[in-house]
Write a structure and sequence with these properties.
single chain; alpha+beta; 16 strands; Rossmann fold; binds magnesium ion; BirA Bifunctional Protein, domain 2; 17 helices; binds adenosine-5'-triphosphate
């Protein structure tokens, strides 16, 4: 191989597509940022045990999908497959839960790594924006997070995102349900792997995508018929708040996260234009996680939204996200003296907040004008020796083609005014 290519299951973000990706990431992060969530950033790798405990020994993420490594010093590390365990670890380590009032609200944005079978919308390196509210039990907090995510999708112009909602109960009511479900599942015709899962992680079986399994699950007991009074009231509280704020949802009694520390509210955002990889984001309550990784009881709720799949959803709907302005002014100098003068103009424009670019490399006027057009700029500023001798530059409107001289000393103010 004479050149390298990106590893399987990964892709590079390059212009112009990278601009939409960045806009999506920022739109997803905008909600938590304006709702009192502080920014947190954790390492790209952690001790393996954080994930095997915090995500769960019996999950696909831990058993099949984790990238693990042993350092030269003999430490077992894993590339982070998800964000929640790391963020909770960081909050506990920094004692954020003792520093001020609860909940501790944090948001993050980063890349995650899972050894998956690559396909459309499923990569080995992907991006998420996440938000976690740690240390409080309040239906309004669950509703806040759901609303922030729903509003983010809407702000991007997506209309095809559906919200699925369920409650997983709590340590009060789930054990009896779990036992009832196991009882039911043991009587089915299932393969050995799935039967093993019935014993370790029975709720996950409800989530099995295979038709042969789904067909047998028709009469399976559902958590919603086993919720205790407190869980029922909590869930009704969340649903009421969503209704009051005009956030549409569908009750999905089969929506699960199969781990014991997940409690009560669970939700997923799906998009029907994405084929099999339909989940664009998901989250829920994880009241038991803190204790599992050595912390005090800290009931918490959070979500993680997939940036890659949200970009695909926009593409599926044919929606272009609003992009921040790119280059507005492009300078085309003709000759050395003009290069000096226009380099100053470009620097001043940038300092004044106007995105501006410059024809580098001493190209001819034709190539430089082509670059100006390709840059997407509204105006080209062109100057040669004769212009400068008269103390002017030419300002060309690249949309209309109109061109007129403008004094060199006022061109920055003139362009700012025209572009505002
Ligand atoms: P799936 O059921 O599709 O595997 P998941 O339950 O593993 O999703 P989460 O761990 O809840 O997903 O992650 C939250 C979001 O991150 C998902 O809704 C999805 O948008 C995105 N995501 C998860 N895994 C991948 C991946 N391998 N490639 C791209 N995006 C992903
Ligand atoms: Mg997955």
């Amino acid at each position: 191989m004479s050149t390298f290519s990106a590893p399987r299951g990964t892709y590079d973000l390059i212009p112009p597509d990278s601009a939409a990706f960045l806009a999506v990431r920022e739109a997803l992060a905008a909600g938590p940022r304006r709702a009192g969530y502080g920014y947190v950033e954790t390492p790209g790798f952690e001790h393996v045990e954080l994930f095997s405990r915090g995500v769960g020994e019996s999950t696909d993420i831990v058993t099949k999908e984790m990238y693990t490594l042993t350092t030269k010093g003999g430490t077992h590390l894993a590339l982070r497959p998800e964000g929640t365990a790391s963020v909770l670890r960081a909050a506990l380590q920094a004692n954020l839960h003792r520093a001020g009032g609860l909940p501790v609200k944090l948001w993050y944005s980063g890349t995650y790594y899972r050894y998956e079978r690559p396909q459309a919308g499923r990569y080995r390196h992907f991006s998420q924006v996440g938000a976690e509210a740690i240390g409080a039990e309040d239906p309004a907090l669950d509703a806040e997070l759901v609303i922030l995510a729903a509003d983010a999708y809407r702000s991007l112009g997506l209309t095809g995102v559906r919200l699925l909602l369920n409650s997983l109960g709590d340590p009060e009511c789930r054990p009896a349900y779990r036992a009832a479900l196991q009882e039911f599942l043991r009587g089915l015709d299932l393969d050995p792997d799935t039967l093993a899962r019935v014993e370790i992680n029975p709720l996950r079986v409800l989530d099995d995508k295979r038709e042969s399994v789904q067909r047998q699950l028709v009469g399976a007991p559902l958590m919603r018929d086993h919720l205790c009074q407190a869980c029922k009231e909590y869930h009704e509280g969340v649903r009421e708040l969503l209704r009051a704020e005009g956030v549409a949802f569908e009750d999905d009694p089969r929506l699960v996260r199969g781990l014991d520390y997940y409690t009560r509210t669970t939700f997923e955002f799906v998009h029907d234009g994405l084929g099999a990889q339909s989940a664009v984001g998901g989250g829920g309550r994880y009241d038991g996680l803190s204790e599992l990784i050595g912390g005090p009881p800290l009931p918490s709720v959070g979500w993680a939204l997939g940036v890659d799949r949200t970009v695909l959803a926009l593409r599926a709907e044919g929606v272009d996200p609003a992009l921040p302005p790119g280059t507005r002014v492009f300078a085309v100098p003709l000759g050395e003296e003009a290069r000096r003068a226009l380099f100053t103009v470009v620097t001043e424009l940038r300092r004044a907040g106007v995105p501006a670019d410059f024809s580098f490399g001493g190209r001819g006027v034709k190539a430089a004008m082509k670059a100006a057009n390709r840059s997407g700029a509204r105006y080209a500023v062109v100057a040669g020796e004769r212009d400068l001798a008269e103390g002017v530059v030419q300002v060309k409107d690249l949309d209309s083609g109109d061109q007129s001289p403008c004094p060199l000393d006022t061109v920055v103010a003139e362009l700012r005014a025209r572009l505002s």
